[in-house]
Model the fold of this input.
Amino acid sequence: MEYIAVSLAALVVSALTLFSGFGLGTLLMPVFAIFFPVEVAIASTAIVHLANNLFKVGLMGRKADIQVVFSFAIPAIILAFFGAYLLTFLSELPPIREYGLGGKTFEIMPIKMVIAVLIFFFALFELLPYFEKVAFSRKYLPLGGGLSGFFGGLSGHQGALRSAFLIKAGLKKEAFIGTGVVCAVLVDFSRLIVYGLSFFSKKFDTLSLDGGVQLVTLATIAAFLGTIIGTRLIKTVTMKVIRHMVGAMLLLLAMALGAGFL
Done:
């Protein structure tokens, strides 16, 4: 069941988010969290996210605006380390509260609560009409990079902020896609270094149990296929539909994580 759920999620979300610049890590991480501890789920999602973005770089990377990449990506890389280290700290904290429901015990963990709040914020970012118009000039690119990198390291939620800052940077559609993908790859590399030292070195056995490695591999392949499909859907799927779909799912996931169900 987990193979179908994760692979299908990776396929569909990757197809829908090729041109939006966000959504794969946002929605795939909670699916992984059903089968693994949340910090391992974040790290596993980062692997799929990185591999898929490398694939996108091969398709669109040559269109990237190098000047914008440097302005945005350097602070993003630096702040991604801090976000990832904060994640390692939060993952060691004890439960905030335990409660019973339907004969089962649920724990509200600090790390899940923080991520739930972040997911809720990004859901509003997608759903509220006001935020659809939010954009920033080029002088704010370093600030946007820092915020995007920090939240990317902490929870994997970097794409929405990255898109908000890049969308008004005077880039053409192809340059916007290519620049966003290159920036995402650089942030993924930095946070995977921290995740590798902190999580995989300690919890690789958790990931390898019950076909975890195979699950990550299948999700990566499915994301590749989704990216290819996405290139064929660009003329029929609008950004508004994608934003609303992602936002609605995020609200449900935020409530589930915050309540300790996931």
User: Anything to note?
Assistant: The chain is about 75% helix and 5% strand. The chain has one domain: 2-258. The radius of gyration is 17 Å. The first strand starts at residue 97 and ends at 101.
